[in-house]
Amino acid sequence: MQRGSLRWLEAELGRRGGNPAALRNIVYRDVGTVADKEKLAAILRDLAAEAGVTGLDLAPDPPPPAPLPAELELLGRAKKRVYKQFLAGVRAGRAPRLVVAGRAGAGKTVLLDHLAAALGQAGVRVRQLNLSGDLLAPLPASAARDRSFAVLAARQGEALKKALGAPAPPGALLVRVTEGLHFAGDPPRLPDGTPVTAAAWAGEVLLRQLPPGVSVLIALEDPAGWPAGAGEITELRPPTLTEARAYLMAKLGVSRAVADELARETGRHLDRLALLGGGGGDAARLLSDPDVRRLALALAVLMLGEGAAWPRPQALGARGTATPDPPVLPGGALAAALGEPVAALRLHARSLLTAVEADEGRAERCWRPSPSLWLAASRLPAGEVEGAARRFVGRCGPHPAPDVQPHLLAALVTLGDWGALVRRIQDAPDAARFLPPLWPRVRDGAGSPEREWLARAVVTHHTGRGDYHEPAARDALFTLLGSPHDAVRAWARVKLAESSVDAGSFEAATEQLARAELPELLRREPGEPWALAAQSDGLLVEAALARWQGDMDSATRAVSDPRTVQSGPRARLWRGLIAKDAGDWAAALEHLGAVPESSPLLSARARYQEGDMRLRLGQPQAALTALTDAARRLAGAGAGPEEQARVLARAGTAQRRLGQAEEALACFDRALALVPAQTRRRGDQVPRARLLSESVPVLLALGRPEAGLDRAAQALALLQPGEARRAEVAYRVRRTHYRVALAYLTRGRGLPYLQPFSGPERDTPDLAHARALLDELLRRAPGASDREQLLHFDMRLTRSLAEPDPRSALEHLAAALDMTDHPYAETQARALRAEVLLRAGDRGAALRDLGRAHALLRRVRLGLGRPHGAEEADPGLSAQLLALEARVMLAEAPDDAEATLRWLRSALEEDVLRPFRAGVWREAGHALESQPWAEAVLRRLFPNAQELRLPLRITDALVVFARQLEEPAP
């Protein structure tokens, strides 16, 4: 930027406190404020001095008078004259008495506000008085009949004295008198009782009550009736089009055409023009505008919830700056509170809102109010806000948008309409997530039975998220435990048992169910709602206890009890979960699919369980789709960060199974960012430890075993045994030890942990350590629960991969095969057994296992619940089978090696196999390396490849040329 250029001058003007947008208007049109012109002149004088210009008169100009406020400088001679005359008279001690008049928008309020500010800075005591509307409370009917007009006039005089207080000289009084002035419905009256206009009353009554020495400026809306001897009136007119245009061009830096359009849209109303120019004024001035007041009322309604994420207006600075900023408000909620779209607001009111980029998943625009508007909204009368809240509730309709729900509930709490609040949550149970911040007001204001029902909604919301220790949940739960109704207390005891199950304290959960007298409750005939809810939730807790103990028959009986229907979608979710753990895949899919989207949190969990099940059944792409959908739904439903992180981690595992290791690691990093390293309560480190542990295989797939060991060590450091979640901690420790063994297996093989992954032909210290770790884990009999069985199965497979001795490896695979309960698990075991049999030299047995594995994989491809394409099967396992088949064919028919490799190249063309191609070629290369004709085969297979003069082994050359053929060099 060249020094002295227009752009440089703009920047320098801004640096010195001027308005950069005004520069070109000053240069080209001589339009701008005195202050901006003086700053520009000073800059030019400095430039002249730097250039060494001589012969010019560069003597400093005489100091200018204090600059007028921009609205007065550019918007009218009359206003400037009155401003200067009154200010000068007060400063000279002359106690001036001036009168101005003008219609709305002429600039009376602006003039009074700027005079008050200037006088205050000069140390003058200033009092502003707004004589508008009704200044007097109405008399009782009996008293009013006995009063004469003279008495009414005297009463008006007393009201005026009270409003005036005792202005003492040499202070200043700035008075605004509107046309609608009246006293308890009675018009203004002279002392003899004669009714007069507001202007006449101000001239005859107001001025007479003021002591000498007090400076007075009266601003009239209508001068009709002003006494001839009370002083000359200066008429104020709205800005002309030229004045409005000049003001907007100077303040906003816009073109003439745009300034003309803005001036016409505001009706050349001075207050509205001031708003557009950023001179909104104080709260009273803002609220005097009907459009701005309506917007402020809408904001006040949205403030009723007092959410923790919103700053209260008291946090805003005295000069209109915010620390922190006012909140961002969704456009739907603001439109509902306004009763019309935000775009329908008049321009001057809309200028107090700033458009903000909408959050992800939110289609509509969001808005941030200006600090001054936010502060003004907090100062509206309570009765007026209550009326706006009633109108807002009436406009919401039966199915308000999610953005509107929290504000609707807060409005109902403010209005004390507890019955309507209960009905709203009954109609939309997910709306209970907005209730906890309102709970203290509900507890103190609602009566029974609404208070108990709303307490139940608060508890259900928090327990559904796993937030059993949240203060609102505990407070609401203890409210229910103190109920005089035994069924209410029983339900609360069931929820305490549920929290104990979540913490892994199964003995405490059993004790709480006993205190809830659940067996007695279950023997009762169907009765009142609380007893039914306690029965239903109690059965689900019993199912959870049986599930963790591995008693799937008891768990299935509990969730199948017809009384669980009271728990609605939650019961469906639990039926799906129990069926999944019991291996009844079709029933699990049916129940999980029946959880309605109208319960966003529960439907998200159902999608998570479906994704987890499909991952287990060998359909990682379908699993990733379900898990990604679950993560999206959880975020939209306001789920806790730990739950969102758990779903992201499972999605990362699905990506690893698809060979997308880099994407999987990024997914885990996002999950870890949601769960902080330090937490409040003991046992809270388990979720982060779980994420760290589950990310280890992803690092191994990237060929980073040392990083995997580091993460495993971090996880184990967090998994310290304690009173809380003992069973969970013990399981996670075993699972992490298993992943440490995986890391040593990966390092011992010198390969990324990515299929195809074959067993070793010779031993290494890392493999020996992996076997020792696994043997220690396998000495413990597997627990009866589904996850313990699955862990034991995985350890058997991994133990075979760490074993150089084929006979020992086959023993572990035989044990694994005995545990298989679905085609994918059996395919995994048979593929590994075929690989061990190949190492042992038994190609016939290996082929039989390969044939069985291919047949099983076709069943996996058929999917669950609906037919799927081949891309739905685990591509890594497909790659494993291809590699094994190529090894068998190359060993059995070496003369057909070229045909075998061509077949393999064709089989690897599927795009889902791309991440696994190098591994398959690597396995084929190992089978070729011992053959003397291998180099000739490679030349025929890759005719366009460069001459085989690279110092590469056959295995590496095969991988390199295959990749070059797949991705030709540019």
UniProtKB/TrEMBL annotation:
Q: Tell me the PROSITE patterns matching this sequence.
A: TPR
Note the segments forming the TPR repeats: 645-678
- InterPro entries attached here? P-loop_NTPase, TPR-like_helical_dom_sf, TPR_rpt
Keywords assigned: TPR repeat
Q: Where are the transmembrane segments?
A: none
Report the protein name in the record.
Uncharacterized protein
